[in-house]
Amino acid sequence: MAVHKAPNCLIQLLLLVWKNFSMLLGRKCYMMGLIIFFAIIPLILMSLRLIPLLRRKPQIRGPIPTFGLHGRIPSNIYFSPQAPLLEALVKEINGSKITAFQNSRKLQEALVDFPDENDVVIGIDFAEGWTEWPDQLSFVLRVPKLSASDDDMFGLFGSYSYYENGFLAVQQALSKAHINHKCKQLNKCPKEIKFPEFRDLPSPPIFATVYTNYLQTIGQFFIEMIACFVVVSLTKYIVQEKELQLKETLHLLGVGSGLQWLAWYVQSFIILLIGSAVLTLCWKVVLPNSEISFLPFTHWSLVLFVLLVLGHCWICFSFLMSSLLSTTSLLPLITVLSVIATQFPYSFLHSVGCPLGLNAFISLFLLSGYTLLVDGVCNWDFYGVGLQWDNLFEIAWPGDTISVGHILLIMLLASFVSLLICLYMEQIRPGTYGVPRPWHFPCSCCCPTENLLPYKRLFYRCLGINRAAPDVERSEVELIEADPEGKTVGVQIIGLSKTFGKMEAVRHISFDMFEDQITVLMGHNGAGKTTLISMLAGFIPPTSGTALVNGYDIQREPRQARRCIGLCPQQNVLFKHLSSASHIWFFSRLRGLRGAEVKAEVDKYLEQLNLKGKKKAAARNLSGGTQRRLSVACALCGGVKVLICDEPSTGLDPGARRELWKLILEAKKGCTVLLTTHQLDDGEVLSDRMVIISDGQVRCIGSLPFLKKQVDASCLLTCETRKRCDVDKLTSLISLHVGSIIPFSIMGRDVCYKLPLSKSISFSRMFRDLEHQKNDLKVRGFGMSSVGLEEIFMSFGEEERDSRNSGGAEKNDEADDDVENEDYDQEESEPNCGSQWRAMMIKKYLSFFENKVYFVLLLLIPIVYYLSTLISATDPQNLPRVSMNVQEYGSYGVSILVSDPERSGEMSPAYYTIARLAGTNVVVKTIDEPMEEYVKNAWATPEGKHEIMFMPMAVELASPLVGWVGPRHFLYAAPMTLNLVYNVMAHELLGPEIRLKVTSAPYQKRSTVLNLFIDDRTLRFQTYVMCYVGLAMILFSHLIIQERDSHMKMQQEVSGLSMVTYWLSHLVFDMLVYSILALALLLPLYNYAPWYNLLTLLLFLGLTSLIFVYFLTLVLSATLLAVTLVLLSGILAFYLIQLVGEQALIYNVIYIVICIAYLTPLVAGYYCLAKCFQFSTLCADSNFESEDPDLAFLKNI
């Protein structure tokens, strides 16, 4: 048989990529998912810009002028401690009702319990109760916390809560009063003091509104859904190949793991490249009736580049997951949980303006890095600049501490780390059929294991450990036929052993197989046949011993040995979505055939195996017998040197078996063939040599005639009798010739006798007497047949009694004979409703116990979240304090601009005062031109804009001093500017001893609901709750889908189980388990709404979701991946309804679509949960008045 040169690595890679793409068309669900995610949904998102509110560029022009807010004195002022001097100071704030308290604790209680929701109160907590006016006036201003973002140092859209509640007015009034009193006390000031003025530095326009925030959330969640779809699908297909032994079969053909990973990467990246290009096109196209696209300012090439980097990270994460999993059972749930878990670092650790190192750590995780990436890209877009190649490694605003470019680099680094972990895990955990390497194998390159053997022996000798060599059980010499002369050894097995734990599956087997011969390996179930074949093929490593395959040692030269083998395993090793002809073409090409040889090989095997009519049919659509014949053809094609077939005739009809015999007999020329079978006629027809093993040991080796001589084999005499035949007289006649004998069996008119071959000399005389006396004996005729092979197998292949496991296959003879009641009451065996329910509950419990790990994980998610919030939570009545000092912004790379037009050479003293107050971390820059002129010129250039973006304040040294408040995203810019300027003024007028120290200490009112509206954080939290419910539904649907796919549901129905009982038992048990999860979910939720409302909602949500999932699996025959995507798509619908909800009043079609969306449980549950969160607010006020009509309208809804 000609040996073909193996294709090079490039050809192998192209063949693997061709194989992967060829299977795409057969994966209809996967192709439908690609069309939905990369075509339909992007078009829908693109069309959102046609909504009237989103057609034009939204723009917030500039900040609210601060000078108009300095006079908003609150109507109520509380202060402490109670002291005459302080009371006189506070009374200088005109227009307020003043109340004094003895200490800070009583002030806190009064502020928290302030009764009037529509009135404004502010608290002033002085450092101490002074009896004389201090040089440093230190006070803490207490204002109510209005939103969760009040704790942040930055806000993209700004926050004017400090202006509206009188903070600035009280701060300025106290600062003026302090300077006035000290001027009078020290008598250093002029008669008319010129207090500072305040103006605003320009703020960049923000091209965003509430609706564009919804667009961002929709786009972000849409990409997350694509990530889940890609990761789950790719992981599933890779694990399937590992689970079905396809990966190791390709190893046999010389295709390394690296090439297989690379082929998967190339195929997935090409698909994502096309999808990303379509997505980029949809997001950058400006529709005719719209002014802007979905992502208006970012450059299209960067959109594509970011999507490709994300796709690369998804593929690497899929590789990592596939190396950790070895079965597809619950794979979608495990993978989705793993993907969602990568969001936790961002959710728990990230905040606006958090340190660079922490952001870099968060970027290492898939979804956390992606969320940071979205924030960075959208921030550039909100400012109307968009992400460009020249600002890729720059931050858009001070609230970002890491640029988009650096996030991409860190994500790429994390992906390469994932690849390294994947390659390592594949080596030490290759799956059921692979050969694992030791966990320290990377270190064995510099220090091979052989070098450690002397030290190992020395260690055993020092400890007195004697390791005796195992006893080698050898077969009896008389049961082994001598090797044939003139034959070439194809496979030589030398002392192969395999131990699984304490069980020896194969015990020191040694024998040779020869070219041009078929060696049949026979033995009972569990004798070690498949284990022996797996060791020869390299699927599992031998415990000891070795084998030479075509001259190559399977231990030292596994790759060369594997390339010589063509294997047809016990199960069909086929690519489900690849056609019959493509299978033979693919395997022939991998074995080195080219051009016309490949076509001839395909035609040959399609003809010989009668597969021409089904050459284009996918393997999964073929019958079991046809799949078996195709597996044999894949093992034979390409001219293999060693053919190993593990029960190849399983599932074949008699005609197909004979065709297979003919094919194997033709293939043995120039080839060594090893065949295992339970069919005795296969062994009789095909075997040149026969090896019988039992309990992992060789019992006999030889040709069929040789083995018949080693056992007292027999022949079967069958006599066809007439009526009134005397069987005893017939038996007596036969006994005269062969000795004492009894009938072996009597079936109808056929009487059978087993005649020993040792009496074959007397057979002729016996036949002569039977022929002469057959009329007297009433015998119509007789015949002889051989039963030698069966007796040989039963003699040598019988397993030892003490090694047989007692189980269902072994019957108790006494029990069989001791049947007291032959007329068994059939009514007792009929199933009743109670027994069916009991059986279903037991089945559900056992299945649930098998998947207990995933239930515990789901149970722990809300508990861990709750505990983490408890640990990180601060006392609502002891919120963080912020000093109104510009040094608080020192770690964010900001600067202060000082304008001194009248400077002549040296810096003025005011400059040094500002530099001292700013500290070392804030850069103080000085200019000679007027501030207004400088700002106007700087704002006209990108560099100047960037400088002002990082400038929380500026000071103009004029008469009077002018404080310039920085852009809106510096939330504390106004009070810090006011504090700095008044300190500079006090220093200039009165000296360095006179100072002002202001601190902000917000408090939380007991009657205030913080989340008056559904802000981003609450919106995200509601989404997480719905995702949690969706994950629970995936777990519950797993058993139903598993029973449906394995036909267990059909078997239960055939056994008499009512389908009403089937579905109701599932519903009852799943609801009980879900109730436990719902109680756990109440822990992080109970602070948002009354617990009884939440529990009722969660229970109804679980009931409807279970029924919805059952509907998907029953009516639509959905797979676990399809159920996952349908549930997650409901979450995407939340945000779409937020955007298009108002259009339902205009377009009836949108109204109908929204009503249909409400039929899905997660969409309805989402809005019910939102209403629960707003329960206290809705019940607190029936009418809310505000100067802002939009605010009042939203509140009253």
Counting helices, strands and paired strands, the structural category is alpha/beta
Query: If helices are DSSP runs of H or I spanning 4 or more residues, what is the number of helices?
Result: 45
The percent of residues in helical segments reads 40-55%
Would you tell me the overall average pLDDT?
A: 81
Shape: elongated
Measured by DSSP, the beta-strand proportion falls in 5-15%
Low-confidence parts: 466-475, 801-829, 1008-1014, 1180-1197
Q: Tell me the distance between the termini.
A: 84 Å
Number of discrete domains: 6
Whole-angstrom Rg: 42 Å
Structure description:
By secondary structure, the protein is α/β, with parallel strands linked by helices. The protein is 50% helix and 12% strand. The protein is built from 45 helices and 25 strands. Mean pLDDT is 81; it is low at 466-475, 801-829, 1008-1014 and 1180-1197. The chain crosses the membrane at residues 30-51, 221-239, 259-281, 302-324, 330-349, 361-383, 403-424, 853-874, 1021-1041, 1062-1085, 1091-1112, 1119-1137, 1149-1169.
